[in-house]
Structure formats: C-alpha cells, structure tokens
Amino acid sequence: MPTPAQPSPPSALHAFATWEPLLRVLWDANAEKFAVPGGQVAGRIGQGGWSVPVRSPRPTGGRAAQVEDAQEEYDAIQRVRTALAETGLDDITFTTRIRPDGRAVLKLLARSPAVESGSGGAAPGGLLLVEGALPEPWRRTPEPGTGLGPAPTADPAALERLLRERLPDAKGATEAELAEAQERLGVPLPEELKALYRVTRARWEDHDDDFESMDREAEAVGCELFPPSEMYVAVPSTRMTLWAHAAAEAVITRPDDAVQGLVGSPGWLVFGDNGGGDRLAVDLTPGPAGHLGQVVRISHETSIGADLIADSLTDLVHERLADRSSRRRGPDAERPVVAHVNTSGVPGVAAAAHPALEVLSLGVWEDGPMSLAPVLDLPRLRTLSAYPGTLADPVEIGRLKHLEFLRLSPQDWRTLLAAGAVPKTLSAASIHAYGDEDPLPLVELANEILGLWGRPPIVRTRLEGDVTGLTVRG
User: Fold this and answer.
1) CA-CA distances (angstroms) from residue 270 to 163, 186, 224?
2) Can you name the residues that pair with 110 across neighbouring β-strands?
3) What is d(CA 24, CA 466) in angstroms, rounded to the nearest whole number?
C-alpha cells in the first residue's frame, strides 16, 4: 500500500520567525503610525534592493554612511532576502499592523508571474494580460530600402593599413573566427568590420593582463572593442523595459533622419562600448539620410532610437565624428504621435487628436475633467494614461477600438470594471497609485483585472505573531 503524500513544510519566507527581526525594526521606527487605530506600514524587499519605512541613523563626524550604522535593519532585511532566494522569488511586498502590546499581523503579497516588478513602493507593477505580448515599438521592424549606400569615406583597405600602423603588435582574428561570428550572428559582416578585426581580435588574453595595452587599443580604434565572439545583434529584446514605459514610446523616422528611430534592429551589429555603458554598432538598416555601415551609439539611458556617431568605421578611427547638434529628436511638435495633455503641454484632447496619434497621456489639468470624444475613432491610438480626476467619463474608454495599454487611477478602474467597459484589446495595464496608498485594495483591484484575462493572481498570505521577543506565534 503506497505511503500517503506528506504535506510540504512551509517555506522560510512564510514563517513568522523570518520576518520577526524586521518587524521589530519597523515597530521601533513607526511607533506613531502603529498607535493610530488601523495604522499600518508597507514595503517591498527584492534581490535588487528594498524599500522599507525605516529612517536610517545619520552618520556622525562628517563620515559617509556605513552598513554598521543600520546593521540591525540590514541583517533583518538580509534574512528575508535569503528566504526569497530559497523560494525562487525576485521580490515580495508586505504590509503590517503592530499593536502596542507587540501583536503583529503581517500580510505578504507574492508577485504573480503576470505582474511586473514595481518601480518603487508597495503598489503592484504592470499587469501583463496577454502572455508574451510586446509593446508596439518592440514589434516594429526596419523600413526596407532606406538610406544611401556606404559613405564615400568607407575604405576597408585604408582602415586596415592605419590600424596596423597604430597597433603593430596586435593579434588579429582568423578568417575562421570571422566566419564563425558571421554564422552565429546570422548577418554578413561588413568589409570595414572585417578589416578592423583582421588587425585585432580584442581578446583580453592577447594583452597579457596589460591594461595600458588595452587602453592603447581603445584609443586607436575609438572605442572599447568587443572580440568577434562577443559581438551581438541589438534586436528589440536586448532593450526591454517596463510595459508602462515601453507603451509610451513611439517609433519615429523622418525623411531627413540618418538613423531609423527603432528600439532595435537586425542590422545593428554591436561591436564595442564607449566606456560609459553605451554600445556602438555598425548600422546595416540606416535611415533615409544615412549610410550603409555607419556607426551608431545605443544609449543605456534610453529605450528607443540610436545616435549617429560616424558615417563609417573609417571615419570613427580617423575621429571624423558626425555633427549631431542639428539632429531633431522626438515627434513633430505640431502633430505629435505621442501627446502629453497637461497644464504646460498640449492644450486639451481635441488639440491632440489626429489620425497618426498613438500615445495619449493626460496629466495635471486645471480646467476640469476632459472627454475622450475627440479621439474615440482614431485608428492608431494604442496607449492611454490618465492622471486621477482628468477623465470626465471613464466609461468612454470602452469605445476605444485599438487600445493595447491602459493606465488609470484606482477609482477610474473601478468605474470601468463596474460598467463592464474594460477594452478586450488590452495586452497590459497599470494602476496609477501615489504615495503610501494602502496596497491591499490595489492588489484586490489588480487581481480583478487579471481575472478578466484568466491570468494568475497576486497571492496573499497572512501571518500573525508577537514581536516583543517573548513569544513567536506563526
């Protein structure tokens, strides 16, 4: 007869003892809040950082803050982070109420796989309503046939001669190594790039731990060069960001742009770094005014677009850099495809409405709530974000036919849900919460929205115990 299955023991993350040291710290730091009937605090702890309502002591003697200054807090948080790692979770949100006698009620909110990590605080992050769905800019591919041919300055033979003069002792890549890189990338390597790597393959071991040698190579080439084996194609998936940020972007390429305003491209071959975290790539899908094989910079501080650095690799090595001072950035100011309606931006929904509009953001507004009537029939409007109190009738949202992303205040979401007017076209959504708003009602709201798409909910766990140190009841 088979042995009955035994219940799995509770994880350390869901044991009150794991949280008790942190609760004591919170009890000491938030006595006034806990003294108010129903008073609670909330926070988030993750592998990449944490946000808990604790005031760290100010360092004395003019020195910088040290871990020792908040050792008790640090140790308590590390205890939770260790339990997180054992459970396989990236982060967890919590709320707690602690009575004057030390009796604590702790509520843990484990993030659903259908919820993005929040950008801060305890409110839920973006809600992923459709598995694997990508924001529209991340689905965009390059326009074919744009750009000019190679720049007149592109000269692989001259480039190779110059680099051999500058780097006479460098070890170049073999033809087999170049062929292997080309096969891995799935893109033919431009002749200039091959010429560069035939002079130096930029491997650390070839420099014999000589940092000065590496610096000389970077100075000779114009960047910190990657070995052929570390080159990669900067497709959109290499530049992911939160849905709320990504959905607010738009791909814009004008007739006089040298670089297509894409998130990524199968023609952006990344070969180096500028030393500050920005990547340099050879561009094989240039904009209408660009050149095949031009060099572009992909900034680590932005999630869309790239800047022209040089018309060719030959120009980069010769330090003939492109003049970017006159390059226009962003959408056309007269008819923007991304419109910010607020007290200092676009003066109203009607002023923002035109057939090419993709993203509409309603911000702080002093002239009363606005109707969405002017934009209801627009064919490309895919993103709507509305600051609390800016919508005259949230139910109008149900008439938007192409909406992919929606960000609303909790009250507007509840109005939309009560009317059964949540657009079925949504791929993702967000709850616009502010300050230290109680995350528990926000989690209930998030789960209701997720439920419309049959997505997994945020899991709530309640723990109780005593933080006086006399007893522990989990």
Assistant:
1) 19, 13, 11
2) 92, 459
3) 9
